[in-house]
Every structure is written in structure tokens, then in C-alpha cells.
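Colleagues,

Please find the record for the two-part complex below.
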Amino acid sequence: MAAKGEELAEKIREISVAEFFEKNRHLLGYENPTRSLLTVVKEAVENSTDAAEEAGILPEIKVEIQQLAEGRFKVMVEDNGPGIPSSKVPVAFAKFLVGSKFHRLRQSRGIQGIGIHGAVLYSQLTTGKPAKVLSSLGGSDPIHEFDLMIDVTKNEPIVLSHRTLPNPKGWHGVRVELEVEGRYVDKITQSVPEYLRQTAIVNPFATLYFKGPNGTSFTYKRRVEELPRQPKEIKPHPHGVELGLLRRMLSNTSAKTLLGFLTTEFCRVGRTSALEICSLASLNPGQHPQKLSGDEVLRLHKAMQSAKLMGPPTDCLSPLGEQMLLEGLKREFKAEKYVAVTRPPAVYRGNPFQIECGIAYGGELKEPTQILRFANRVPLLYHQGDCALTQAIREVDWRRYGIPQDDFPKAPMVILLHFVSVWVPFTSEGKQALACYPEIMREAKLALQDAGRELSRYISRKERLREKQLRMGLFEKYVPELAESLSKLTGRPKEEIIAHLERRLDEEKG
Amino acid sequence: MRKRDEVIETLEALGAKLLQEIERGENPWLEVPIRSLSNVRYNPETKMLELGSEKAKRYFFNVAHVRKFVQTVEAAALSKELKEVGKHLSLREAFYRMKRTLPGSNINLVDEQEESNQAIEDLELITNLSREKLHFNANKMGSVAGKVVIEDKGDVVDWSKLGSGGWSIPSNVEEIVFKEVKAKFVLYMEKAAEWERLHEDRVWERLNCVIMCSQGQATRGVRRLLQRLHLEHSLPIYVLTDFDPWGFYIYSVLKFGSIGLAHISEQLAIPGAKFLGLTADDVERYDLKRHFIKFEEVDLRRLEQIAKYEWFKDNKEWQRQFKLMKQMGAKVELAALSSKGITFISEHYLPEKLRRQEFLD
């Protein structure tokens, strides 16, 4: 475990934007007390699950919220992940855009490297209390207990205290405790319990414990004893590179020539492709990457977009898979029919992605149709209307599958869409809605249509059966009447005629 | 007694057929001739509307048929019961007799009288027995007066000695026996008001005829009585109606038969009947334009439909009337003749038209 933690920490680099948060906290999901509390929980849980999963550990996450005063809560999230080396803890929690995940392309829950720091800063801004972080690498490593704050102007961590505690049981993992302002609700879709419920659906391999401030407590036991395949890290594909990122990559590279830069820092670029890009941009392949002028960088960026290249590798993705999706749906919904579809990988703007769709239909479910959106195993609870996944559900012709529709399909069902990618194109830093790239819309619709077709087979079978029963019911009602009349006409006993008719009725039923 | 047995036998045979199919585990069915314009033809030989040969099979184990199927069998059972106790039911009574709720449901065997009426008409078609023979009676609505003596259920009735109301025509006239027929022809009119006029003026005595009326479309009993007088006593039948498309159609039904009852045209239609009602020429002659009732859209449409009927299509004299009526764009009632004098119709109009033999055929 210790080795894993060290390895992750090596990727931690530093970038600065601390004051940004103070002024724009609404962009990061801290716009109102209810959502702020949810965001704090969400950031911590996602950090924890990612860490455990990357270390190959089946996640076990404990979430506890205590109410300290009116509008004031203590949020505690503990994982069984690999832990963070004590020397890296202050930076990992109290310095902005210091994430282990920003400079790489790998399918993971958090990406921007803002998440947990935002939570720490939010706590600091609203209550003035430091964040308490406990971490241990396990084995002989003691438990390190930190009280941390962020120096907002310098974007530097302030370590108020660092103590070591005995670790007799060899615990490994991280525990974060934050005091925040907020509002706790549990009956609405945008609440902590709902967030955890949805998280459980797409993380059937995780166990989640929850203890709420009003005595609520529940546990989602894992249904699957195996982690999904580990996603692989890939280098960016030239087609998907943003200008800003390209600039940063150019200044950070250790390559000495443009040719070297292109072939080592990107995927699917060999010598031939690199030379083609250089010639398209009218640049000398031997030029030093750090010496490109602004205009030259623009030309390079344009050339990279237009060069003919193989699509990025797609084996880097780790979808849940149809079986796990079904397990997730079954754990949460008592339906009569479950359908799951995992589409083959596709590419948008040089980023490989994959769409999964699950539908639970009928049974104890009620109208209206519930829509559950996920990106890299994280529930998206806000901005449903702006999301590409929602849009795709609208654009599918559900009537074709025997499901009534006005705008949205109208049936007692749950539609789950899961977007998996090395880079999730959120419409904002709040990370709640996907941008409507045509490739994403197309794949989402295909997934829904695949699932819709399978569901329609079930619905029409059920419909036929229901019609048949209705028909039989109708005949059954008229049988005694006919027998009565015929008995009068023929003098034969009514019961005898009924018996004959019912035999025939049974045959019709069969 | 013989007749009664024939009916019961037919009904029992129908029951036996269905029972046999049921015992064999088959889907029991009834075959019903189709009663719609598409299956009705005008036969120029007999000058009657006749039912075509198209038939529909109606099954019990068929969602679309089951209801009508059971209704028809129930009508048969009810008919047999009536035969056995020697009673008749009006169509309305038959409806109440058949109306009951299916056990364990909220479905009634019949919901409206139209349904039981249909079931009875279907039974007529299936068994080829008239409603009257099956002991179902339509509403009676009709009066008659004239120099005829009949016997009905043991009572001898003289149609000339019944005061101002005349004899009320029953729905079933099969059992009536004509004892003495002195009248030379029959005047039939569509309206009771006209009949009362003629009766008060004792036209039947003066012209030595029978005067008869129904109200609107002639009922089956009235049509059958007219037909029997025509066939059994060779009395010419003259039909007296208003100058309007609906009046013309009343004449058409009496003479050629109707679409709905095409299956019993033979028992009802009177191909020899002649039209004595108001014509376009009468309108001119008696100066009735002052009493025009302007056509409405429906009148015009009805006129055009009638003009296209096969049995009027090639009739020059009728086509001339239709054309003139269309030009006038109006209709005139017989009652308008009273503007010429209280008894004008009895003392001038009818005697003159009869003398001039001004009939339309």
C-alpha cells in the first residue's frame, strides 16, 4: 500500500488559483447551503473511492454528518484506500489545483484537481475551522493527524498541527473532517442520501455507510466482489488538445525538438505523423519546443487538429459492463424487467469515451420516468436539463418501443445513462452536466435505442399476454349467459354446456 | 298450431346446431345475411328490393362478435319461451326482458333497445321467420276506415262502423280474416291529420274506398295489411303524401321495400302501388306556390339521393317531378290544400285526380 501512495504523490504538481475559488464558489457547487453540504460530501467521497479503486482495493466508505448548530455541520468521510504519505498531506488537501490527476488522461471520478481543496476552503470560509485530516499508509506507518488551513493569497497550506497516533491495527486510508455551514435535507433528489443511493447503483463493488444528523443511517453492501478493470492512463490525442493545455505541455516538456515533443507527449503520433503535422504548420521539426512564438503555437495547434491520425486507443476505458449495471439496478429498484447496454468505445475530440445505458421497468416503479445520469461512476444531480444525456433521452422516439412520450418518455421506469471517458466534458466546474458533442449525443441515443428495443420486446410480449387475458375474461363473462340461453333452446342442463365451453376456453388460453 | 310448431322447430334446430359445435369443442357460429346498402339490390323483374347473398359468420370466441352472438341466441331463447306460453312482447318489453347484468361484471347483455332490436332482426334473417312469427311486436300506429268487414281473434269488426277513431291497426295482422270487402281501392296517407280530414268528410263512403294511415314511415303491420288487401282482394293502393323528398320516399318504401327490411320485401312491398300525392303539376294547377316551404340543405341532398335510386333512375315521369322540385327548391304540404276550402281535398282534389287517373307509377 505504501508504495502505491508514494507513486500517486509523485504526480502531484503545483498550480495556483486559490483566490479564484473565494470569488467564484458558485461555479464549484457552493451556491446555496443545501448544495454546498452535498458538494462537500461528494468531493470527499469521490476522492476516497478513486484512491481505493486505483490501489486495487474494494472501496469501503463511511460518511457521517453531525449537526453542531443551526446551519452548521461536521462532515466526516473515511476510506480504506492506500492513504497519503504524511509529507504530502498538507499539499494534497490545502493547496489549490494540486491534484494527482490534472496532467494525465485517465478515467477517474475527480479530474480538475479542485474538488477536495474547494471543500477545505469552503469549510474555512464559512466556519473558520481548520480541516482535520487523518492518514496512514498502513503497516508500520502510524496515523498522522493534521489540522490544515489554506493561505488564500499565497495558495499555500498552513499546518496548524501534526501529530502521530498509534496505529495498532495497521489501518490504512484517509479520514477527513470538515466543519461547514449548510442545510441538511433528505427527501429530495438533490440530497446527500440520494447522492449516496445513486453512487451505490453505479458502484456495486463498493460498500457505503451513512449516518445522518437526524438519526438516519443506512448501508449499501457491495453486490460484486470484484473491481471493474483498471482504466489505463493515456497520453492526450492531438485532436482533443486545447490550446492552453498545448501551451503548458510545450513549456513543461523535456523534449528538445518539436518532433520529439510530438512523438513522446501524444498518443497515435509516430515519426511520419509528427513530420506531417510540422509540415502542415510550416514548422521546422528540429525546432526547440520551448522556443515557439505565439503564432507558431497557433499554427501547430491548428495542424494537430487537421492531421489525419488513428483514433486514440480505447482500451484505456473501464465501463461497468452490462452485468454490473444490472446488479446495480437490481440492488436499488424492484422492477419487473432490467435491461443493460454497454456501447463499444467511440471518440469525441480525440478523447475516447463509452456510453452505458440501463433501464429498470415496471414492477414497483411508478411514473414519471426517473432519469439517472452518471459520469465516470459519479451521479450528476443538478442541471439535468442542460445535459447531453438528458437531451439524448428526449430525442429518442420512445413510441417506437411501445412507450408513450411527450418530450420525455412516460412509463414507470428508470433510465440510467453512464458516460465513461478519460476526460468528461462538463459544461461548468460544478460538474453536473455534459456538453452536447454530436458524437456523445449519437452514442447516447444508440445506447438508449439498443436498450429500448430490448425493452419493447418485453413490453409487447406483456401487452399481448394482457390482451389475451382481457379477451379470455370477456368470454368467461359471456359463457354463463350463452349457456343459459342455449339451455332454454335445447333443454340441455346449463352446467353441462358451461363445462363444454370452459374446456374450449382453457384451450384458447393455452 | 302447425305454424307454431314450425317456429319452435326452427329455433330448436338452431340451438341443436350450436350445441353440437360446442360439444365438439368447436367455435360456435351463426351465419347472418348482411343488412346494408351494399348487399341490397333492386330486382326489376319483381320490382322489389331484395337482399343479396352476402353473409357474415359470427363466432362466440371472437372479441368483436361475442356480444352480438350471445344477444342473438338470447333473442332465440326468448322467442321460444313466448311461443310456448302463447304471448307476445313489444320490442320495448323484449329489451327489458333481455337486459340483465352478466354475473361478476358490470356488463349488461343489452344496454340500449337498439341492440335488442338488432338481435331480433338478425334472428329474423337467420331463421327466415318474420318478427311477428317470432312473437315480437312493433309499436302499433295506424288507423283504417272503409267498407270492409274482418274477423280478428273471434271478433267481427266492420271498418265502417267505428266512429271517429276508426279501427286501430295491430302490429300483427297475419291472423286477420277478411269477411267482406266492398271497397274498390285503398287510399293510404302518411299523416294521421289527413286521415282525420278524409274520415270526417266520409270520403271512404263517397268514393267507396278504404282510407288508411300510419305516422311517418308505415309500420310493418300497416304495410302487411295494405299488401294483403292488394293481393287477396286486388284493391289498387293509392299513396297520398306531401310534395317533398321524404314523402316520395314513404311511397318508395311502400312500393319497392326498404333497405333495412329487404329480407322480407316479399311480405311487405306492393309493387302495384301508385302515387296520388301532390305533384309539381298540382302545385301549378292549384296555385300552391304561395305555400312553398323553402328547401334546406338536407332536403336537397335527400332529393338527389332518391333521384339516383335504381328504381327511379329510368322512370321518366318521376325524374321530371324530381327535376321540377329541384327547380322550385321548395316543398308543399297536403294540408296547404285547405287554403282552398275546408273540404277541398275531399270534394275536389281527390275526386278530380281519380277521375283523370292522374297517378304516378
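The two ends of chain A are 62 Å apart (CA to CA).

Comments are welcome before we finalize the supplementary table.
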